User: What shape does this take?
Amino acid sequence: MSQFEGRGAKRLDSENLVFYRQLDSEGNVQNEGMVKTIDLSKSGMALEFDHDVENDTHLEVHIGVGEEVVETNTIVRNVKKVNDELFIVGVEFKYLSDEDLNKLAMANPDILS
Assistant: This one.
């Protein structure tokens, strides 16, 4: 199930494509690319990266859910190195509207419980 234990929200296995932009403290784009989700909850998600990402890094993300796209901002809370080419990055949503949560629930209905 989850790559990170001790989270308050129920985390569900999930595979969604995510476009991200890594932002610096002034909001300038430092890096961008595509990753995929491993798990998802109403408070955050775990993502597969091919490179290390520092804790407290701000990411703007666009999550593909069927025909919908959820756009939100996140902050990196945990990074687990699996090997030199795989890092599991746990991010917390800074804000997720009810509308966006319902979009995520279309693919993962248990996220609301």
